[in-house]
Amino acid sequence: MTLDPRIKEAITEAARELDQDQALASKLVAWFEAIADGNESLEDRDATYRRLRLLYDATSVEGGDE
Protein backbone atom coordinates (compact mmCIF):
# COMPACT_ATOMS: atom_id res chain seq x y z
CA MET A 1 0.00 0.00 0.00
CA THR A 2 1.41 3.36 -0.96
CA LEU A 3 0.96 6.66 0.79
CA ASP A 4 -1.66 8.86 -0.81
CA PRO A 5 0.01 11.84 -2.54
CA ARG A 6 -2.53 14.15 -0.85
CA ILE A 7 -1.14 13.15 2.53
CA LYS A 8 2.39 13.94 1.39
CA GLU A 9 1.25 17.33 0.14
CA ALA A 10 -0.66 18.04 3.36
CA ILE A 11 2.41 17.26 5.47
CA THR A 12 4.63 19.44 3.29
CA GLU A 13 2.12 22.30 3.31
CA ALA A 14 1.64 22.11 7.08
CA ALA A 15 5.39 22.26 7.65
CA ARG A 16 5.64 25.24 5.31
CA GLU A 17 2.74 27.08 6.99
CA LEU A 18 4.30 26.52 10.42
CA ASP A 19 7.73 27.73 9.27
CA GLN A 20 9.31 24.34 9.86
CA ASP A 21 12.36 23.13 7.99
CA GLN A 22 11.37 21.03 4.99
CA ALA A 23 13.62 18.31 6.41
CA LEU A 24 10.95 17.78 9.06
CA ALA A 25 8.32 17.26 6.36
CA SER A 26 10.63 14.83 4.57
CA LYS A 27 11.15 12.83 7.78
CA LEU A 28 7.41 12.70 8.45
CA VAL A 29 6.65 11.61 4.90
CA ALA A 30 9.36 8.93 5.06
CA TRP A 31 7.91 7.55 8.29
CA PHE A 32 4.35 7.55 6.95
CA GLU A 33 5.57 5.79 3.78
CA ALA A 34 7.43 3.17 5.81
CA ILE A 35 4.30 2.46 7.84
CA ALA A 36 2.04 2.39 4.75
CA ASP A 37 4.44 0.02 2.96
CA GLY A 38 4.60 -2.29 5.99
CA ASN A 39 8.33 -1.72 6.49
CA GLU A 40 7.75 -0.24 9.93
CA SER A 41 5.16 -0.78 12.62
CA LEU A 42 3.88 1.52 15.34
CA GLU A 43 3.84 -1.54 17.55
CA ASP A 44 7.65 -1.57 17.53
CA ARG A 45 8.12 0.76 20.48
CA ASP A 46 11.88 1.15 20.11
CA ALA A 47 11.66 2.10 16.43
CA THR A 48 8.74 4.44 17.12
CA TYR A 49 10.64 6.13 19.94
CA ARG A 50 13.67 6.62 17.67
CA ARG A 51 11.52 8.14 14.92
CA LEU A 52 9.71 10.40 17.35
CA ARG A 53 13.02 11.56 18.80
CA LEU A 54 14.26 12.44 15.29
CA LEU A 55 11.05 14.38 14.64
CA TYR A 56 11.28 16.15 17.98
CA ASP A 57 14.86 17.16 17.28
CA ALA A 58 13.92 18.43 13.80
CA THR A 59 11.01 20.56 15.08
CA SER A 60 11.56 24.19 15.92
CA VAL A 61 9.32 25.77 18.53
CA GLU A 62 9.35 29.53 18.71
CA GLY A 63 9.71 30.78 22.27
CA GLY A 64 9.86 27.25 23.67
CA ASP A 65 12.04 26.22 26.57
CA GLU A 66 14.96 24.07 25.52
The major beta sheet can be summarized as: none
What portion of residues is helical?
55-70%
Q: Could you tell me how far the N terminus lies from the C terminus, measured between alpha carbons in angstroms?
A: 38 Å
Count of DSSP H/I helices? 3
Throw out a few tags for this protein.
mainly alpha; 66 residues
Kindly describe this structure.
The chain has one domain. Helices cover 64% and strands 0% of the residues. It has 3 helices and no strands. The N and C termini lie far apart (38 Å).
Blueprint (SSEs and pairs):
Elements: H1 5-17, H2 22-36, H3 45-58
Helix pairs in contact: 1-2, 2-3
Summarize, please:
The protein is mostly helical and 66 residues long. The chain is 64% helix and 0% strand.
